[in-house]
Amino acid sequence: MALKKNRARLVGTALAALAVGVATLAVTGPAQGLNTGKIGGPDASGFPTHYTDDSGVSLQLCIDGTARCGGATALDDGAGGPGVSVAPDGEGFYWMATAAVNSPRGRIDVEFAHEAAWASATQPIVFSRTRIRGDMRPGRYTLLTPFGRTKFAAVGTGQRNVNLTQDPGCTLTRGGPCSAKMTNFLRATGAPAGYLGNGVSPTTVTGGTERNNLVLLDSNGKVIGKTARFAITGLLADGPAALLPTNPVSFGNGARLAHRSITLRNRGNAPLAVQGLRVDGAKNIKVARTGCRAGTSLAPGSSCAINLTFRPGALKRTSGRLVVNDNTIAGTHRVPLRAG
User: Fold this and answer.
1) What is the pTM of this model?
2) What share of the chain is helix, strand, coil (3-state, %, to 5)?
3) Disulfide engineering: 225 pairs with which of 69, 86, 103, 130, CB 3.0-4.6 Å?
């Protein structure tokens, strides 16, 4: 199977660069968030059917031919149809987030992605990408990202004097981990149903494990540029899809009774069955009477509120997690809770 690329969005990756060897790209190690989930076996071409992040969001390859997937689609590879063993080319995305950061010292274009490509005529590979390219005054810089920090240098004064690409790989076995910083897929605000973004329009996002923006620092640690707007590509896996907050939910200073409401949304294409709700690790935070409880069924596009109550008692500081069990691929979702 080859994957068609939209020139404006799916920036070509030279297969010569990818052909450094599957042993290099398909690294092993402990799962760091992104993995193929419970039933992420290979499709007809050997790619995992989906990847699931730490928040329980599962994505399939975004190759539906729409602008939301950059126009990418499965296509005839010139030798009889998808999946035959010829030298395919191209790349596809389970997920991609792109952004630009402007500063008095220049501009950088940033890409985070979870990609599928071919290392050879018969060998599919998947890798997570961090890429920073641009034109900056010579020097050393640090970029604070949703997934940590990345250091890079601008060398010389020519065009694209910043050119950093990190492509840690993923095992393609069932449940195979990815050696990557990313643990959560960023989600665009106001994303169309069935997607994490429209693939084109930069917007604010949620889902970062460190922050939901980019902050550019010079060699002295001074902030010289920032942005909170990303263009997000991501097609939700078939079935129900439970979207919950990824940032911690705070009950305030912990000195008084407090109530919070968390919205559970079904962004998938099948009914979402809530099978259980509980709070772990925080005895003074309880699930209150709510319309969103075990036995609730949410139609695609609908939502319900999970009400929580914090009672300070002897404990003024506490932390825990709301745990939601459902019929999604992940099966379990966790929302951090804290007070005090």
Assistant:
1) 0.82
2) 5, 45, 50
3) 103
